[in-house]
């Protein structure tokens, strides 16, 4: 039987340059995860295997008026068995 096996690993990370931010809000994490996957899928369709991520979130009154800016990076690795 002929077959092909591949293992695809997607890695991404987010960070904020807001020095007052000690940790990322759990609700922001959910939004950032969705934002990352949307951007990764979009870029993969164009043939990219890595790229930058960027988002700005303002969900709560406690968030700054202009939101919290996040920057990130993603990459995909493919291993053929």
Summarize this, please?
By secondary structure, the chain is α+β, with helices and mostly antiparallel strands. It contains one helix and three strands. The chain has one domain (7-80).
Walk me through this protein's architecture.
The structure is a single chain. This protein has 81 residues and is of the alpha+beta class. It has one domain (7-80). The protein has 1 helix and 3 strands, in the order βαββ. The chain has one helix spanning 26-45; strands at residues 6-16, 50-57, 68-80. Strands 1-3-2 form a 3-stranded antiparallel sheet, with helices on one face. The two termini are 15 Å apart.
Q: In which order are the strands of the major sheet placed? A: 1-3-2
Task: Tell me which oligomeric state these chains represent.
Answer: single chain
Q: How many domains, in number, for the residues?
A: 1
Gap from first CA to last CA? 15 Å
Mean pLDDT equals 91
Shape summary: elongated
Low-pLDDT residue intervals, each spanning 5 or more residues? none
Strand content: 35-45%
Q: Sheet bearing the most strands, described?
A: 3 strands, antiparallel
- Given helix and strand content, the structural type is alpha+beta
> Which value, in Å, is the CA radius of gyration?
16 Å
Count every helix, treating DSSP H or I runs of 4 or more residues as helices: 1
> Percent range for helical residues?
10-25%
For the secondary structure, the number of strands is: 3
Topology order in helix (H) and strand (E) letters: EHEE
